Amino acid sequence: MKVLTVIGARPQFIKASVVSRAFKDIRPDVREVIVHTGQHYDANMSDVFFDELCISRPDYNLGIGGGTHGQNTGRMIEKLEGIMKKIQPQWVLVYGDTDSTLAGALAAAKLDIPVAHVEAGLRSFNRKMPEEINRVLTDHIAQILLVPTEIGRQNLRNEGIADEKIKLVGDVMYDASLYYKSKARKPQLPIGLSDKVSEYVLCTIHRAENTDNRQRLTNILHGLSDSNVQIILPLHPRTRSKIAEFDLGIPENICVIDPVGYLEMVWLEANSRVIVTDSGGVQKEAYFFGKPCVTIRDETEWVELVDAGINQLVGDDTNLIAKSIREAKFSLLNSNIYGQGNSANMVVDLLNQ
Ligand code: UDP
C-alpha cells in the first residue's frame, strides 16, 4: 500500500512525525511518500523538526510559500495533482487546517483518491478564520475523518457527515507529547533569565486575527506588559514582521527568542508557570504538561479545556490578559480527554482497511 502524506507547516511536522513512526513500527510494508508544500520554510520553522523528530526527508518539496492564501492553495493543488497521478497512492493523508491540508484534500478528491483527515471535526464557528474554511471543506471531502474528541464527532454529525466515516482516535499530539517529553531539551536563554526560570510565563502569538490587526496586537502586548511577570516569547516570523511594520515596542518583561524546535518547546512548556497563547496545539500541550492556559482568542476549538476551567479565553482584553496571567491556576482533571496516547497506531490501523 502507498500513502501520500501532505504536510507544510510546523504543527503538521509534529503530528506527522508520530504517525510516520507508527507506519514504520506496525506497517513497515506501507510506503509513505511525503510531500512538503513549503508553506513553512525557515530552518527553525521546518528543517529543525525533520532533524529532531526523525521524519524522513520529504520525497517532494514544492517550495510554495509566501503568497496569498488563494495563490498558495492553487499552486499547491496543481503540483500535488501531478505527483498524485504519478504515485497513485491508495490514501492521501492530511493534517489539521492549513492551506496545505485543503490543497492535499482537493487534489486527491478530484482524482478520486480517498482522503484521511487527521484532526477532523474541530470548529471555532468563526468563518473569518482561514483555518476554519480549510477544516470545513477538508472534512466534507474526506473519506475517513479522524477526530480527536467526542465534540469533534458531534460537530461532524451536526453537519450531516455520515457516522461510518467518523473515527474517534484521540489526539496524535498527545502521543507526541508523551514520546518526546523525556527527550525535551533546555533552550539557550539569555544570561540572567535561566536562574529564575521556574517563574516564567511562556507565550506564543501567531494567528492572523491577532498579528494582522494593529489594535489587537497592541492590546495583547500591553496586557503582557501589565502582568508584570517574566515572559518568554519564541517569536513567530509573521508576528515579528508585524511588530516591526506597526512599529510596536517589545515590553521590558518580555524576553523574545527565535522560534525553537519541538524538543526545546516541550522543555519550555513543561517548566513554565502559565502558558499564554493563540495556538491550537499549544493550548493542548498546556493541558498535557499540567499548566494553566490563557488563550488570547475570542473562541477556541478546544472547548473542553475551557469547560474544565484550565483554559481561559481572554481575547485582546488588556486588563483581563494581565489579571488572568497573574491568577491562573491548574486543577487536575481525572480523565484524559485526548485519548490514551495510541492515536497514531489507531490512524495507521484504520488506513489498512
Ligand atoms: N512550537 C514549536 N516551537 C515554537 C512554537 C511552537 O515547536 O517556537 C510547536 C508547539 O509546541 C506545537 C506546535 O508548534 O506543538 C504548534 O504550532 P503552531 O502554534 O504554529 O500552530 P497551531 O497549533 O496553532 O496550528
TrEMBL record:
Instruction: Give residue ranges for domain UDP-N-acetylglucosamine 2-epimerase.
Output: 27-351
Q: Which SUPFAM superfamilies match?
A: UDP-Glycosyltransferase/glycogen phosphorylase
Q: Which CDD domains match?
A: GTB_UDP-GlcNAc_2-Epimerase
A single Gene Ontology MF term assigned here is: isomerase activity
Q: Name one Pfam family in it.
A: Epimerase_2
Q: Which InterPro entries match?
A: UDP_GlcNAc_Epimerase_2_dom, WecB-like
Record keywords, A-Z: Isomerase
Q: Which Gene3D superfamilies match?
A: Glycogen Phosphorylase B (3.40.50.2000)
Which PANTHER family did the record assign?
Answer: UDP-N-ACETYLGLUCOSAMINE 2-EPIMERASE
> What family classification does the UniProt entry report for this protein?
Belongs to the UDP-N-acetylglucosamine 2-epimerase family.
Q: What's the name of the protein?
A: UDP-N-acetyl glucosamine 2-epimerase
Instruction: List the source organism.
Output: Pseudohongiella nitratireducens
